[in-house]
Amino acid sequence: xxxxxxxxxxxxxxxxxxxxxxxxxxxxxxxxxxxxxxxxxxxxxxxxxxxxxxxxxxxxxxxxxxxxxxxxxxxxxxxxxxxxxxxxxxxxxxxxxxxxxxxxxxxxxxxxxxxxxxxxxxxxxxxxxxxxxxxxxxxxxxxxxxxxxxxxxxxxxxxxxxxxxxxxxxxxxxxxxxxxxxxxxxxxxxxxxxxxxxxxxxxxxxxxxxxxxxxxxxxxxxxxxxxxxxxxxxxxxxxxxxxxxxxxxxxxxxxxxxxxxxxxxxxxxxxxxxxxxxxxxxxxxxxxxxxxxxxxxxxxxxxxxxxxxxxxxxxxxxxxxxxxxxxxxxxxxxxxxxxxxxxxxxxxxxxxxxxxxxxxxxxxxxxxxxxxxxxxxxxxxxxxxxxxxxxxxxxxxxxxxxxxxxxxxxxxxxxxxxxxxxxxxxxxxxxxxxxxxxxxxxxxxxxxxxxxxxxxxxxxxxxxxxxxx
Length: 469
What we know:
3-stranded antiparallel sheet; 50% helix; globular; transmembrane helix; ent-kaurenoic acid monooxygenase activity
């Protein structure tokens, strides 16, 4: 054997050793989470778990999850599970530091969201730290029902919603007028955030006069930090910036709270908002609500009614503008008009909700006690077997269409359904009505990429708004 052959054999041996070590370590490390979370449950239970894998130690499947949501195809994460394990509609995984079960089957998702007895809310720790355990999200089922009734009554029902239409119309019309007066293109998403923030603060605080652009920016930071996978209060981390934003927003809300608590009942210069009803409300022991609870309730509603409405509003503007423009002329708006607004009922789509598993067997699968259950609404709404061509804007798909149970849940389901759903629909309805009738929309970068998970144009939808003659 020549020295050259010996050298080649040595190279191949080294390569083989490296590959073997890689395969061994890869296989071993990938199994650590499986052993830790699954096998210790016992043979009977681990064989009854949903299909899937637990990912890497410590990080679970967060790397592939984040990679998917930072790509152009965020649905690749759930689609990969379907491809690997079949259309079971339920999969085990590990996300955000917790062993979890993802549910993306319509009927099972709805069943879990409606089951308050065996599932309780399990929101991310980052969200709970920012909104507080004393909040609507952190309340146990019985307390949640009481607080929800207190908060929802003023923004639901024909009479309550009709009262807000005039407010919303004034804000929308003046905001659109301002947008059209700009001599250069604007970030339409930023303007929409101002609109939605003004609407929600007007309804809850009784006034939107003191709302500044910086307030909307701080709420944006609060939202980003609320779902941070690394909730560290350390400079440089998003969660740290969110905590600072919370303090600033608290300084914005607190004066309103103090003004209302100590105002003279005959003071006609202060318009009432939902904050006044909260100040008069009493808890189960007959005591008035604590300041901390009221502030956290307001934080939650302002957060939910600000960012989500803004993003939906932007897409309700972008998508119809790609289609033919043929609005129906009409004067004035009533709640009945809004319920019949075709573009609204065909265009709205959002996702939310997460619950905490408490040892249960569903559809033949075991969900161990303490595991998180993630109801993946996006997986339902983007399922091509439920909605053909789900990535296309096809309003006609809703013609004579009655969704099957659990196949369309844009505002969630059960006791944790978005409490401001009806208010959001009216806000969208009023905006799209005045916008389509009176303005022209021209995107400057129509091919701007979309960023996730916020699902918005990466340039914040730079556009030129022109008022029609």
